[in-house]
């Protein structure tokens, strides 16, 4: 990934998170190099997942950053992604439990529709993508962040996994994917360092799953405490209420 800087979008105004079963909804941001296994790990978690890759800009957007060698758009630069829209979707999920998200076709570099994402009552969800670290500060400032993780592994393994996936899915032309893969292979340690500097905890898959499990346990405990507190308030109000004759 290119280490381009960008202007951080304004964080959403602090709001009361959606209360599901007495617990505020929060997000786990999952980032890491392309091909590091974010999507498969998110699926293993059993939590609802917001795919942040769907917030890429369209290929016709004049603000797309370009590769210095003239090889086209730099899809690994944060400026190729609509961070403001991604933060707004995370905020909406935490406030209301659902939101509409774009459907992005990577092979066409275009948005091809929208779909609804409903948390189905879950008090915790994962937002995963290579730019997830870029919104850690915004989510933390809004009180929405449960954890932020950066998957890391062997660069050579990541290279092979990424190239096989991208060729299988036809994400871009084969020559582009090979050039991109070699560029990302050389930059992988810098990518992890950047994500870590932005606030993500670097870890391998087993530790990431353990931290996700811990966050779920913590949210369940918070929900139980909140329900108990609400029941106590209801009981006290019932005792204090005047008796009507």
Give a brief outline of the structure.
By secondary structure, this protein is of the alpha/beta class.
Protein architecture, described:
The chain is α/β, with parallel strands linked by helices and 245 residues long. It has six helices and nine strands, in the order E-E-E-H-E-H-E-E-E-H-E-H-H-E-H. The strands form three sheets. Strands 4-7-3-8-9 form a five-stranded parallel beta sheet, with helices on both faces. A two-stranded antiparallel ribbon has the order 1-2. Strands 5-6 form a two-stranded antiparallel sheet. The longest helix is centred in the last third of the chain and has 36 residues, at 205-240. The chain is globular. The protein starts with 18 loop residues before the first strand and ends in a 5-residue tail after the last helix.
Counting helices, strands and paired strands, the structural category is: alpha/beta
- Helix coverage percent: 40-55%
- H and E string: EEEHEHEEEHEHHEH
Q: How many β-strands, per DSSP?
A: 9
Q: What would the average pLDDT be, to the nearest integer?
A: 85
Number of helices: 6
Q: Can you list the strand order of the major beta sheet?
A: 4-7-3-8-9
Please describe the biggest sheet, giving its number of strands, its sense, and whether it closes into a barrel: 5 strands, parallel
Kindly report how far apart the N and C termini lie. 73 Å
Which stretches are low in confidence, meaning pLDDT under 50 for 5 or more residues running? 1-9, 11-22, 226-236
Strand content: 15-25%
Radius of gyration: 20 Å
């Amino acid at each position: 990934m290119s280490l381009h800087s960008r202007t951080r979008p304004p964080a959403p105004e602090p709001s009361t998170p959606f209360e599901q079963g007495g617990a505020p909804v929060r997000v786990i941001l999952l980032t890491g190099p392309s091909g590091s296994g974010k999507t498969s790990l998110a699926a293993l978690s059993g939590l609802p997942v917001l795919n942040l890759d769907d917030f890429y800009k369209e290929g016709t957007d004049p603000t797309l950053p370009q590769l210095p060698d003239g090889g086209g758009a730099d899809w690994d630069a944060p400026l190729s992604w609509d961070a403001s829209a991604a933060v707004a979707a995370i905020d909406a999920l935490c406030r209301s439990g659902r939101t509409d998200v774009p459907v992005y076709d990577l092979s066409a570099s275009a948005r091809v529709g929208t779909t609804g994402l409903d948390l189905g009552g879950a008090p915790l969800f994962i937002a995963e993508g290579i730019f997830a670290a870029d919104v850690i500060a915004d989510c933390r400032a809004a009180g929405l962040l449960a954890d932020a993780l950066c998957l890391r592994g062997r660069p050579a393994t990541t290279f092979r996994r990424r190239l096989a996936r991208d060729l299988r899915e036809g994400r871009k032309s084969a020559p582009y994917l090979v050039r991109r893969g070699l560029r990302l292979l050389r930059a992988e340690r810098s990518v992890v360092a950047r994500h870590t500097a932005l606030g993500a905890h670097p870890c391998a898959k087993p530790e990431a799953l353990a931290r996700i499990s811990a966050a779920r346990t913590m949210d369940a405990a918070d929900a139980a405490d909140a329900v108990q507190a609400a029941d106590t308030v209801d009981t006290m109000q019932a005792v204090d209420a005047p008796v009507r004759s």
